[in-house]
Amino acid sequence: MFKEKIINFNDGINILVGNNDSGKSTILELISIVATGKLNGINIEKLINSSFFNNEIRNEYIKSIESQNYIAPPEIIIEAYCKEDNLNSCHKGTNNTLGEDCCGITFSFEFDNLQFASIYKEQLLNGEIKDIPIEYYKINFKSFNGDNLNLRDFPFNLLMIDTSKKDYSNLVSGFIHNNISEFYQKKMKQEILLIMKILIVLDM
Prior knowledge:
The chain has 204 residues and is of the alpha+beta class. It contains five helices and six strands, in the order H-E-E-H-E-E-E-H-E-H-H.
């Protein structure tokens, strides 16, 4: 949907309004990918394919192959910029496309030139490349300080609720449970979980 876009969110609540196929869901999906490394609860590495690329960019690359006016394989970059606090201060740096000294992380899906440059060039000249060669791509998650990130190191918490579903109790309970596990001692955690279960039963 987006070729290049910077979205400045407000503090607190943000509401996305637009026609069908205007990119509202795409924005939520981008947030999910960069915040959790997952899309619809599935690791992005298992889902990503050529259709994730912007249509215009993808068609431009395909036409360059057909005309033999070769251009570099395109890439996908998603960056999340956030305010500094005790949780994410270690992710502060200037390794972002805007060159800002702030906290955040970057997701990138890019051609692995180090490993596959020679075989890609050979297949390109032999006419074997017809579309974006994602089999030669790599996924990176990096902090703005330049460090590589594992999923467990992500500074964000995310809860996605699909309005087409009727029962959110398991989803919300799981989200609360995971966050409690991070910040509370075992004894306090058990007490809070007990209260939470009582509240959910009363609510139902």
